[in-house]
Design goal:
Oligomer: single chain
Shape: elongated
Distance between the termini: 36 Å
Length: about 100
């Protein structure tokens, strides 16, 4: 993700807390796995962090919610074509779609 070193705290916009770059990377990876695999992958990552003595990071990971199928598909699209998704988000924020509803 390139957001910082593994030990330097960084802000992760989706969450109220500040996490390290390696936890932010773990979150990004987890939301890339299929919804069927999400819970087991999340729990395994949390267990590994806990075993490494990183209880706070483990709890951050453990609190991650399984994405809905819609959100998972949107996330996959954003990973595959980030420019198109960014353009869509700008259009929605700019009110360009208000004529449709």
């Amino acid at each position: 993700m390139g957001r910082g070193s593994a030990s330097r705290p960084i802000s992760f916009p989706r969450y109220a807390e500040v996490v390290t770059a390696d936890v932010a990377h773990a979150i990004d990876e987890l939301y890339g796995v299929s919804p069927k695999e999400f819970s087991s992958a999340r729990n395994a990552r949390a267990a590994a962090l806990k075993a490494a003595g990183r209880e706070a990071d483990a709890q951050t990971i453990r609190r991650l919610a399984k994405p809905s199928p819609f959100l998972w598909a949107t996330n996959q699209l954003a990973r595959q074509d980030p420019q198109r998704v960014a353009h869509f988000v700008r259009a929605v924020r700019g009110g360009l779609l208000q004529h449709l509803f």
